[in-house]
Specification:
two-stranded antiparallel sheet, 5 strands, single chain, 84 residues
């Protein structure tokens, strides 16, 4: 999904690099409660904590996680590190 420029003067699409939990759960088609359970249980990629109240997930991590068939966080991290 792409974000819109704030000025409204340009038609350039800016790619979204990070998403909130709400957007992440919509992306993979689960409820927010299910996403929160998955996150608490270590079943989704690690988030990026931008500040104490601002947590985001890298879109690239979510894409790769789904491509890998949604492994546990530990397995995802291990498999991702082998790809680098």
């Amino acid at each position: 999904e792409k974000g819109q420029p704030s000025s409204g003067q340009s038609s350039v699409q800016i790619p979204r690099l990070m998403v909130s939990a709400e957007d992440a759960c919509r992306t993979i088609g689960v409820s927010k409660a299910t996403w929160d359970r998955y996150a608490s249980a270590g079943k989704v990629p690690n988030p990026v904590r931008l500040s104490p109240g601002c947590v985001r997930w890298l879109v690239s991590d979510l894409d790769l996680w789904v491509e890998m068939m949604c492994p546990s966080r530990d397995e995802f991290e291990a498999r991702r590190s082998k790809r680098d």
